[in-house]
């Protein structure tokens, strides 16, 4: 079992930046991928960025490409989401999730952290 805790959310003005952190604990050696997802009120959950814990390769949604950067520190069991040039439409609850070895889906989720971008 892997436990995840997000932090770093808050209120920021449009154009500003935030850095989200995701702390993993438990059976972390089995984690092969970390993803950041978000869900705004009345909208479906959206995958924002994903990273491989082995080679660091990352993919982004078109809506954040060029503005957000996902990274990980395997030694500290941490993952991060650097968010720059924030827009009001980035307002959502942001979740990190872990994909375990052999799994096709992200099966472990954090409790989420709120990001609010004011115009």
What count of helical segments does DSSP give? 0
| Biggest sheet details | 7 strands, mixed
The SSE string, one letter per element, is EEEEEEEEEEE
Radius of gyration: 13 Å
- Which percent range fits the helix content? under 10%
Q: Class by helix and strand content? A: mainly beta
In quaternary terms, these chains amount to single chain
Beta content: over 45%
Q: How far apart are the first and last residues' alpha carbons, in Å?
A: 40 Å
What coarse outline follows from CA principal-axis ratios?
globular
Q: Pick out the low-confidence regions.
A: none
Please provide the count of β strands: 11
Mean pLDDT: 96
Descriptive report:
It is a single chain. The protein has 119 residues and is mostly beta strands. Helices cover 0% and strands 56% of the residues. The chain is built from no helices and eleven strands. The protein has strands at residues 2-7, 10-13, 18-26, 31-39, 46-52, 58-60, 68-73, 78-83, 92-100, 108-109, 113-118. The strands form two sheets. Strands 2, 4, 5, 6, 9, 10 and 11 form a seven-stranded mixed beta sheet that branches. Strands 1-3-8-7 form a four-stranded antiparallel beta sheet, with no helix packed on it. A hairpin with a 4-residue loop joins strand 7 (68-73) and strand 8. The mean pLDDT is 96.
